[in-house]
Amino acid sequence: MSVELALSAVARIAYLTSDVVVDSHPALPSISAFASVYSNLTKASRHRNTVLSAPFGSDPGSSILRNQSALTSFTTESHSQVVTRLVLHLAEISVLPVVLHLAVKDDLSDVLLLRSAVPYFLLSTTAQQAHDNALLAARLARQKRKAVVHVFYSSKDAELLEEIPEDKILPFLLAASHLASPSSSSGHVTPLNGHANGHNGVNGTNGVNGVNGVNGANGHTNGKALNGLVAADEDTTVALFKGYESAALDTLTLVKRSLRPFTTRGASDAQTTIILVGKTNFTAEVDNVTFISLSLLNPIPPSRLLNAIPETVTRVIVFEQVQRWTTKWTPIYLEVVSALQHRHAEQRPIVQSGILGEHVSLPDVLKLIQHASTTSPSTRLTLGSSPSPAAPLTNTPHVPKHEAAYTKILSHLFNERLDIANSPSLVPSQGDIATSPEFALGRVRGQLDQRAQLVAAVQELLQEPSLDKELHSLLGKWVLAKDDGAKSRSLGASIISALESTKLTHPAIARILSLRSQFPALSRWIIGSDAWSYDLGSSGLHHAIASGLNINILILDTLPYSARNSGDPHRRKRDVGLYAMNHGDTFVASVAVFSSYAQVLQSLLEADRYNGPSVVLAYLPYQSEDVPALNVLKETKLAVDAGYWPLYRWDPSKEKRGEEPFSLDSDAVKNDLKAFLDRQNHLSQLVRSTPQIASEIVSSLGENVKEARKNRAQQSYNDLLNSLDAPPLLVLYASDGGAAEKKAKRLANRAKARGLSTTIATLDSVTLESLAEEEHVAFVTSTAGQGEPPQNGRKFFKSLNAAALSGEQILKKVHYTVFAMGDSHYWPRPEDAHYYNKPGKDLDSRLEKLGAQRVADIGLGDDQDADGSETGYKVWEPLLWKALGVDSIEVTEAEPEPITNEHIKAASGYLRGTIAEGLQDTTTGALAVSDTQLTKFHGIYQQDDRDIREEREAQGVEPAYSFMIRVRMPGGVCKPDQWLQMDQIADEHGSGTFKITTRATFQFHGVIKRHLKPAIQDINRVLLDTLAACGDVNRNVICSSIPTMSKLHRQVFEFSKEVSEFLIPRTSAYHEIWLDKKLVAGDALKDKEPLYGEFYLPRKFKIAVAVPPTNDVDVFANDLGFIAIVGKDGELQGFNVAIGGGMGVTHGNKKTYPRTGSIIGFCTPEQGKHVAEKVIIVQRDNGNRADRKNARLKYTIDRMGLDVYKAEVEKLLGYVLEPARPYTFDRNVDDFGWHTGEDGKHHFMMFIENGRIQDEPGRDYKTGLREVAKVHKGNFRLTANQHLLVSDITDENLPQIKSLLSKYKLDNLAYSGLRLSSSACVAFPTCGLAMAESERYLPVLIDKVEKMCEANGLRNDAIVMRMTGCPNGCARPYVAEVAFVGKAPGTYSMLLGGGYYGQRLNKIYRESVSEPEILATLAPMIKRYALERLDGERFGDFTIRAGYISQTTEGKEWYDRMGGEGQYREIAAAA
Ligand code: SF4
């Protein structure tokens, strides 16, 4: 058996017998062994109860009291702190139906403390006994409504365990008792009267022996002895004991094993009795000795003991497994002594006590008997040896690995100045106490006293007139610099060596030398866990805070946000931050390293600088050491964003300087913190300094939202009243991409126009119960993934399916019809055809099954129809009107036309809209919906945190809105001062990190509304902007980074800039809104957009400039690509022009597809910008403005024909383009490593995984790049693969840059070829379109695929692997050799066969794969590639040659022959 056998058996019984289980967690990093059993049972068992976890350090007794039920169980692995805390509440608990299961290893010292305070105390020494006693305890506690302590050993012994099945447990608990309840404490209770069952030789058992039924007291002495002795038992003891016997008999009938209060073995005429309390391996018999093993430690009726101890005995030795008992006699020893007082004086044996070891041998027993007779009765004896006697003080406690995230920062910041006053390394020498705050405080106090003495001694010596000048100067300097970490140390060292060699004699010198260790000024820290915060007083935390000493306390709070409710809600730990702030003179900071690294650094430095106590509360959510960092990150984000863990700093010293002491570093603040700020009247100061912050803190956003909702509800109510006479219609929709939603909204509008009282909602917003009350319902649903319902309908489908199974006709009142939307060609295999419109069809049949009446046949919208789903819709809608009797109503008023982006653009006043007004509105974190379309043109996307969207919805507050800002930076080139500014903007306005995007520019996330304008202004301050970084215009023009070709790079970079400037929108709205420049006089808008016009382009437009042989910009993925043609003389001759590339696709919509650009000719550098302009004009005038999904240039070209399009462009140019010239690409990955350009300048291309610039523990890239930027004199080039080139480094600057790159590990390129060639878009949590993880997941997937590559010798082979969170394709997945495109959380389309240098599209290989399928698919493929590839053959080419996938020759054929070729297609079909 494993160590868990007894423990899991007890946990199982605790779970199955209780209504509430309170599980006490051990100190981290250990995790509760009980918890895993509970979590398995939650899934496997039908029994439902509440499992609460009591964190280590909390007060478990009060949790039990607050959670009383028919039976409450408490489970813990015994720890003195837990047991001590239980004692506090035992008096109250003892009269409740509670079982306290305590697992012990080898020592009962702690648990025996509880014995006298509870009515029942059971001890189990084997797993089987633990199982049976757990049942007995549950029955006893439930029936007698009394607390039972059940202590059991969790050991590694192998043994068999027979468990009672779950279905028998509840009947057992509820069944009537086999014994009548004790009527009262009569004293004459049948079992105890012992009807002389007699003495069964040495095997006599006591109590319920299961042999003779209710035997009551057996014994050596029969009735004769009992008559005199029962009087010795107190009434209460008798009553309790009878209760035990009754429950034990009931348990016996269930388990078919006897349960006895104690067992005896040995001779009935023995001289010695050894009473054993604890677990031992000794089972042999010894002449003249009777062994009594106790399993019921309370109550122990004296009569029972007397019965068990033969009258012949002259010596009784009570052995207990107590290694750390502090008083002379143990309670059980005293009970034995007291019981024996009932014997005649001359019959009374000597009673001795001793400590029982687990390993006892026969010689041990023999030696003991001999030894006992020769020693004084008061000497404590020992029997056997214990595997682990007293806990040795030699082990250094384990520090959980996640905590290194903070401890590393401390060592990094303070180096040798760091002194951790309660460091675990002190434990071996000082004992466990060394980690407690009291100890640390005492230590610091002592050290500070010593330092004060040192200062006094130095000052005394300074008074000495004969002191030599140099020493005087050193001492003087030290006094001045004594608080400076570095100076005080170096001056101290000089003073010590000067004093050691001085001839001067002065009493202060000896004192100074004896205090030499105090010369350096240290940064003193106490590090502890949140367990301290459960009891500020006894943990010593209060004393540290109140001490006034210059001490820093770092408290790690590890409770994950998502587990915050698993603890007893009434026993929350104290808010140490608030507590300390209330103290007045304590610096307090609340930080979270995985949310804002910069804020952690700032807080720790400020805490160190603060002259007084500082408390830094650090959030580090993890439940076990195995939790991956990604989870810690997610939990942190949730906690910070939801306001559960606000980031702030409170510096009382600022108040004295007239500054605001409170800085809120995150956007949400807790209510109690807000209340504190209000109470302290700091708010008025806040109002004075930053009115907008104050108003946001005071006026709760939530309140405003509620108010707005109330108004809206009132409005809806009024509308309802107005249309009461019309038949009601509820339109319910489920939609992922928005098409079904659009259709449902249009249907609702048309219904209103026909006088129907119409409401519209998503499927998931209704319950079956509320649906049952509706009269007419029209459903509209699209089809997701593998025929699944869309996301916002899944909950509803689940309950619908469950209800359909039950067969109840709960929807009889409902009249319904369904319109389903899907694509009949989406699934290439005939056997998958049933997925077509499956959700709609399922819905239709399930509703019917539930009794609803179909009023019109299901409508089927097929993307393959001539007019898409509209074809089927046109047939279906009239059926609905007919069924509702409104088909003859003439709709006179035009139905409200849906507002499209085209309307918004045209009505925006050249991109103004109401953005400026929206920015002023502090009641919401969002902008108006139409404005959010316009801000894209300004480089700004409104987003909300997807991780906490549901959470916030449940809280009734609006989503956590923030904005993404994208910089326009043509060619991806920036100066060091611009880099520094970006770094600062990320810290001050964004999420603390920033990203290099696939458009080779900077992107900031998490910018909240009030920070938008300052952030944009800061960007403009360094001569960059965000205008046209997104939106339906030409976006950032990108160009190859080509480190070695210096001159050429200058030319293509200048070309990119020129094209970008030439095509920039001319509106002055950007300057007006963001830069406060009133360029347009008065209110009359005089803006003009000569190129774009007021409608701008139908869709976005992207331009790239590539320099062969590198295609690092993926030129064919752009609407317009310029491929540089260089003459033999190395001069730029011009560009081949490629048009019509584009990535975006919509899942399941075959009208959408990716396309690679088509080359239409050659132009000179001078012609380039005009060619771009004309290509744009033709698209502007011919692009599809009615359907944004079909609006990109690629579709326009395919619709018009390439030749026609080209001719249109040439017509506008007034000349014909020259024929394209030859060129060769050979790669699209970046050229990593060092390069020297033709001009002798150096460049280093570094690998930044997915472009994320951030500091992580052990990888301070953001800091490192900031340091590089501070000294770098050249440029930075951002690449479209999201990496970074530190460029144009001079010889002179080279060593310094190299050393910084090395210091911050930025020069690390020791990655696999796969990783170096990988790329992922942002996706979750910020991208509103993400369907699956991308940036956060691809590195994890690569870890796994990399291993396959390594195993097949492909570590250094580049395989271009890309991932995006949705089919929009920001990371250009459709030209990757392998790609994964998100469909739903954890599910991706898998694509294969892209060209290695971006020349060929890939194709869908598998529609829906999750990680196991990805790995299972790739493993054999990679192996085959390693074995069978041709010389130089690339993975993408190989997958086509090997037949895994067919080649995509052009975008329009992208869907042809999807899903593999030949046998591979068959394999997929068979799967
Ligand atoms: S590909 Fe999709 S998920 Fe990824 S960033 Fe672009 S829009 Fe968002």
TrEMBL record:
<feature type="domain" description="Flavodoxin-like">
    <location>
        <begin position="729"/>
        <end position="881"/>
    </location>
</feature>
<dbReference type="GO" id="GO:0050311">
    <property type="term" value="F:sulfite reductase (ferredoxin) activity"/>
</dbReference>
<dbReference type="GO" id="GO:0051539">
    <property type="term" value="F:4 iron, 4 sulfur cluster binding"/>
</dbReference>
<dbReference type="InterPro" id="IPR029039">
    <property type="entry name" value="Flavoprotein-like_sf"/>
</dbReference>
<dbReference type="InterPro" id="IPR008254">
    <property type="entry name" value="Flavodoxin/NO_synth"/>
</dbReference>
<dbReference type="InterPro" id="IPR001094">
    <property type="entry name" value="Flavdoxin-like"/>
</dbReference>
<keyword id="KW-0004">4Fe-4S</keyword>
<keyword id="KW-0411">Iron-sulfur</keyword>
<dbReference type="InterPro" id="IPR006066">
    <property type="entry name" value="NO2/SO3_Rdtase_FeS/sirohaem_BS"/>
</dbReference>
<keyword id="KW-0028">Amino-acid biosynthesis</keyword>
<keyword id="KW-0560">Oxidoreductase</keyword>
<keyword id="KW-0521">NADP</keyword>
<dbReference type="InterPro" id="IPR006067">
    <property type="entry name" value="NO2/SO3_Rdtase_4Fe4S_dom"/>
</dbReference>
<dbReference type="InterPro" id="IPR005117">
    <property type="entry name" value="NiRdtase/SiRdtase_haem-b_fer"/>
</dbReference>
<dbReference type="InterPro" id="IPR045169">
    <property type="entry name" value="NO2/SO3_Rdtase_4Fe4S_prot"/>
</dbReference>
<dbReference type="InterPro" id="IPR011786">
    <property type="entry name" value="CysI"/>
</dbReference>
<protein>
    <recommendedName>
        <fullName>assimilatory sulfite reductase (NADPH)</fullName>
        <ecNumber>1.8.1.2</ecNumber>
    </recommendedName>
</protein>
<dbReference type="GO" id="GO:0050661">
    <property type="term" value="F:NADP binding"/>
</dbReference>
<dbReference type="GO" id="GO:0010181">
    <property type="term" value="F:FMN binding"/>
</dbReference>
<keyword id="KW-0479">Metal-binding</keyword>
<dbReference type="GO" id="GO:0000103">
    <property type="term" value="P:sulfate assimilation"/>
</dbReference>
<keyword id="KW-0349">Heme</keyword>
<dbReference type="GO" id="GO:0046872">
    <property type="term" value="F:metal ion binding"/>
</dbReference>
<keyword id="KW-0408">Iron</keyword>
<dbReference type="Pfam" id="PF00258">
    <property type="entry name" value="Flavodoxin_1"/>
</dbReference>
<dbReference type="Pfam" id="PF03460">
    <property type="entry name" value="NIR_SIR_ferr"/>
</dbReference>
<keyword id="KW-0198">Cysteine biosynthesis</keyword>
<dbReference type="InterPro" id="IPR045854">
    <property type="entry name" value="NO2/SO3_Rdtase_4Fe4S_sf"/>
</dbReference>
<dbReference type="GO" id="GO:0020037">
    <property type="term" value="F:heme binding"/>
</dbReference>
<feature type="compositionally biased region" description="Polar residues">
    <location>
        <begin position="377"/>
        <end position="397"/>
    </location>
</feature>
<dbReference type="InterPro" id="IPR036136">
    <property type="entry name" value="Nit/Sulf_reduc_fer-like_dom_sf"/>
</dbReference>
<comment type="similarity">
    <text>Belongs to the nitrite and sulfite reductase 4Fe-4S domain family.</text>
</comment>
<dbReference type="GO" id="GO:0004783">
    <property type="term" value="F:sulfite reductase (NADPH) activity"/>
</dbReference>
<dbReference type="InterPro" id="IPR009014">
    <property type="entry name" value="Transketo_C/PFOR_II"/>
</dbReference>
<dbReference type="Pfam" id="PF01077">
    <property type="entry name" value="NIR_SIR"/>
</dbReference>
<dbReference type="InterPro" id="IPR029061">
    <property type="entry name" value="THDP-binding"/>
</dbReference>
<dbReference type="GO" id="GO:0009337">
    <property type="term" value="C:sulfite reductase complex (NADPH)"/>
</dbReference>
<dbReference type="GO" id="GO:0019344">
    <property type="term" value="P:cysteine biosynthetic process"/>
</dbReference>
<feature type="region of interest" description="Disordered">
    <location>
        <begin position="377"/>
        <end position="398"/>
    </location>
</feature>
<comment type="pathway">
    <text>Sulfur metabolism; hydrogen sulfide biosynthesis; hydrogen sulfide from sulfite (NADPH route): step 1/1.</text>
</comment>
